[in-house]
């Protein structure tokens, strides 16, 4: 059997322009829920509310099969073009096969390795701390992020966003937005330095 060609960003871009046309509401309220319900029934998937992470091997395999089938059947919706980016099963499996097996966040003594973990793995997961996209005031931005960085349990920071920049609203597409994004990165790095966590992943 021939191995599917690894897709490039150019391939995806072309598919985003030429894929099947679907209205966003139809995608959100019909395509996704109906396909999910169908596959849930097909693979007998039932959620045990007492066990968030499944450990039953048959259920784990069925979840993978259902997820793979859903991706191939539904594709990925591009809201910019209102089109569906479609993939074949072989393309999805080739992407999984070629995916990185590890990633390093941070540098120096603060570097941590993110790698796949099974449900039986004794190794602790990486803990990412931070406001995670929540709005933060200019006045408290630095202190908020320092409070996360100084927690020994936290390995990397997922930063918040500045509500204002020098009193101005960082409207998307404006110079204030660019200034806010730059300031966020500078302030988070300063917060990490103040917490003694220079090099911590961001």
From TrEMBL:
Top-rank taxon, per record: Bacteria
InterPro entries found in the cross-reference section: MtmB_MeTrfase, MtmB_sf
Gene3D superfamilies recorded: Monomethylamine methyltransferase MtmB
Name listed for the protein in its UniProt record: Monomethylamine methyltransferase MtmB
Native source species: Sporomusa acidovorans (strain ATCC 49682 / DSM 3132 / Mol)
